[in-house]
Amino acid sequence: MVVNDNQKDINLLNRIRTGDKSAYKELINRHKDYAFTIAYRILNNREDAEEVAQDAFMQVFGALSSFNFESKFTTWFYRIVFNAALMQKRKNKVEIVDIETSSEAVLVSHSSDSTEGLRKIERTKAIKQALQNLSADDAMMITLFYLKELSLGEIAEITQISTETAKVKIHRARKRLTEEMKKMLNEEVRSLL
Amino acid sequence: MLTDEQIFDVLDGCASKELLAQHQNLFSESAEYKVYFEELEAVHFDLIDLPIEKPSVQFTENLLATVAHAPIKKKSWSSQLTWMFLLLMTASFVGTISLMLFYFSSSHSVIEIPRVYDLEVINNFSIDILVKLMILVNLVVLLAIFDKKVLKPYFLNKNMRLS
């Protein structure tokens, strides 16, 4: 019998409830990357994102009794990560720019080579930078939409808005991202001239 | 020209047949549209290819250590407030009915509350004050439940909502 992803999560949660220590590790390993990515896209800081992802897991472990086992675990979990990241974002008064993905780093790396592989890496860096320049709201919408190909209904549930609003927000976020990319490319061309 | 929403519908693969036909027509005829579409398409595919971020290698170990030091909390008394309240009310109700049945069965005319001669304090305690006290306790418990179940989630939700 094929067990789907959500059923696997539910099984792990049930094992955690019965005190199975190994289930913690399995659940963490299954979702840590996505939790971290969501938090990182909102916070633009690795340390903060890691802390938020850890807090989100702790919240999950502490609130298992309030989870409705008929609903999808990831929707509930991503909402916890999303809310925790937003709260952290509000707490952070000073925005710290990650040196690795700063615009300077992108510009320097652009001047290096033009092979296909490198061009792809550069574009990825550029899009990451553009994502960082977007609002937390926009970055979050794009991340949820592309990261795990969540449905509009799920995104709406995580962000607690209507499906229609979610669709509009995703469109607008992508449009702003395209504009941001264009702006970055123009700046890059100007700096090279 | 198609709107951005329509172009994204084409890219997401959820465009109608009419919209797709319109897009193909514009794509082959309008150079301006072609450039704009390709711009959005490039971003779309970049986003699809965007790798997920990885936390530090000690992430799981750190988290497991935290879990080990902070075992899962049992339900706090406040989370069981509703059940406590309902249990108390049920007990009071059953007690009242039992007392009524007991006194009605022993005396058919007047309900007489037996006096406890040894405890003067209880005898002096006014029934009126007791009733008021009970109402006050119930009111406080009800307000606590209302605050926990309605007000707190509402304001928390309001704060969390996307701006």
Unreliable stretches of chain A, pLDDT < 50, 5 or more residues?
94-113
Number of helices of chain B: 7
| CATH fold-level topology of the domain at 1-96 in chain A | Rna Polymerase Sigma Factor, Chain: A
Question: What would the principal axes of the Cα set say about the shape of chain B?
Answer: elongated
- Rg of chain B, Cα atoms, Å: 35 Å
CATH homology-level superfamily of the domain at 1-96 in chain A: RNA polymerase sigma factor, region 2, helix turn helix motif
Report the principal-axis shape of chain A.
elongated
By oligomeric state, this entry counts as heterodimer
Counting DSSP H or I runs of 4 or more residues, the number of helices of chain A is: 9
Low-confidence stretches of chain B: none
Report strand % of chain B: under 5%
The percentage helix of chain B is over 70%
Fraction of residues in H or I helices of chain A: over 70%
Main sheet of chain A, how many strands, which sense, barrel? none
N- and C-termini, Cα separation of chain A = 62 Å
Spell out the helices and strands of chain B N to C: HHHHHHH
Structural class of chain A: mainly alpha
What characterizes the major β-sheet of chain B? none
Number of strands of chain B: 0
Write the layout of secondary structure elements.
The complex is a heterodimer of chains A (193) and B (163).
Chain A (H helix, E strand, L loop, with lengths): L4 H13 L3 H23 L2 H17 L10 H19 L11 H8 L5 H18 L2 H12 L4 H8 L3 H30 L1
Helix pairs in contact in A: 1-2, 2-3, 2-4, 2-7, 3-4, 4-8, 5-6, 6-9, 7-9, 8-9
Chain B lengths: L3 H9 L4 H13 L1 H19 L9 H11 L11 H26 L13 H5 L2 H34 L3
Helix pairs in contact in B: 2-3
